[in-house]
Amino acid sequence: QVQLVESGGGLVQAGGSLRLSCAASGRIFSSYVMGWFRQAPGKEREFVAHINPSGASTAYADSVKGRFTISRDNAKNTVFLQMNSLKPEDTADYYCAAGVIAGTRSEHYRYWGQGTQVTVSS
Question: Is 66 exposed, middle or buried (CB count within 10 Å of its CB: 0-12, 13-18, 19+)?
Fold first, then answer.
């Protein structure tokens, strides 16, 4: 069983930056694809980014490409989401997820964190 805990959310002005962290328990963290998803009020959960087990391969939603960076530190069982040039439309609850298949759909991920809220004001 993998347990995930997100942190780093908060309120930020448009154009600002936040760095989200997701701490994972378990000794098999390095074998999982890790993803970030977000869910804005009244909207469906959407894919943000994912990273393969080694960290060598990443993918991003078009809406965040060039602004967000996903990374991982397997020695610390942690995945990060660096968010720059934040926009009001980035406001959402952000969720960390772990799975065995890299994908853009939530059903590709077996384990989920509790979420951390990001609010971007205009």
Answer: exposed
| Single-letter amino acid, residue 117 | Q
Per-residue pLDDT of the chain (122 residues; tens, 9 = 90+): 789 999 999 999 999 999 999 999 977 788 999 999 999 999 999 999 999 999 999 999 999 999 999 999 999 999 999 999 999 999 999 999 999 999 999 999 999 999 999 999 99
Pairing of strands 18-24, 78-83: antiparallel
Chain centre to alpha carbon of residue 47: 9
Phi first, then psi: give them for residue 26, nearest 5 degrees: 105, 150
